[in-house]
Write a structure and sequence with these properties.
Largest sheet: 4 strands, antiparallel
Radius of gyration: 34 Å
Oligomer: single chain
Structural class: alpha+beta
Number of domains: 3
Strand content: 5-15%
Helix content: 40-55%
Shape: flat
Number of helices: 16
Number of strands: 9
Length: 428
Amino acid sequence: MCLLNAETIRNPYTSSRALLAAKLKELSAETQIVENAFSSDAERKADVDVAIIRIHIKEPPREESDIWERMKKAVSEDEIPDPELKALITGDYIEQAITLYRTEVAATMELIRQYKALIPYMPTSLNPDNAYGKDPILTIVVGTHNSSYGFDQDDYMRIVRLKYWRALFSNEQFIGRLTSELRRKYDEQVDRMADYEFSAFNIKQVALEMQSQMTQGVEKAIMDLFEKLTYTHTYDPDFSSNKHYYNGWVTNKAWKIGKKCIIPTYGMFSWYKNHGDTFYVSEAYKVISDIEKAFDYLDGGRTGEINLLSRLEGASAQGKTRNIECKYFKVDIFKKGTTHIKFYPESMPLVDRLNIYASQKKGWLPPRYGKARYKDMKPEEKAVVDSFHGDGAEGSGEKAYTEVLTNAAFYLAEPTQTLPALMEAQHG
């Protein structure tokens, strides 16, 4: 957009004005005449008519590469789908990434082949006595390595392979369900993948390894969460004196997760006053997403997905630190260094399942828990069930325990989360 004296447009009597008028017409310019534009509110008043010119200039079409188009067609015709990989990981992301990788490599290799063939025809000098005259005028750079005769295709392959492996290991569709601990592990290994072809077979091997790691890590993730939300941060100094049944603690909440819990979360806020209530989203996400992932193992995809990162970003941008809605709970984040977790009522069956799972692993529940009916239990077993599910009074835990037996497929099943389920959840 620009401003002109209206006379320039109204009276194109000079060659330059005529040329301008023709160019504006060619560009389909919009012209608006404002009469006496500077006669009222202007600091220096003048009776001048102004032309406001608006031009929408389209971006020139991108140059197409014949090499790229030919290689893309060749790759698509040569594509062989991998049914095993498709069965392991749902969605099109992996397939598209492999196709793009193969096309890029094929096109670049063809470019390199043609470049090398042209080197003899573009010497730096035509003087045959010039020792350096045969070096080509035009060179290709791979990374930071100049290609003049010392060009190494292996350098290119390492760089391009690493680019795609890094993209894969940072893609939420592929690693979205990994805990931060597992993510760190794969982040540390990704540079080594530069030596491995970005292929369906190798991606399948990585996916299988991830599945194995996640299956092995399910118990650790859940037990770490249980300890984090219970006795690791309890204020009772004697919490560790009893390692067996619940009736040994009576009122000590270090043995069970309730509707609310508090964990220390230092470093979520800046010490600078001008930052106000804006918290560090990355720190909050790291803590809360790991808690959600552990519950995901127990949930089995029953609860709808949310975008936790977006919710935290929105809350931080608004200076909101209370009642931030997450997948299974709401959180209050305090500057003093604590986060309060308040579970939704509909999430309490998951909390109960977590308590049961962790307590069985620790040997805090009777061996016949989940196998025998309440009325068939021994008095000491009933006492533990009453303390765990009730208030400790005789018979207070029978109703909740019967609910567990009735829905044993949910409360007592081993929590596992394989990679296909994870990827389906990402698409869901």
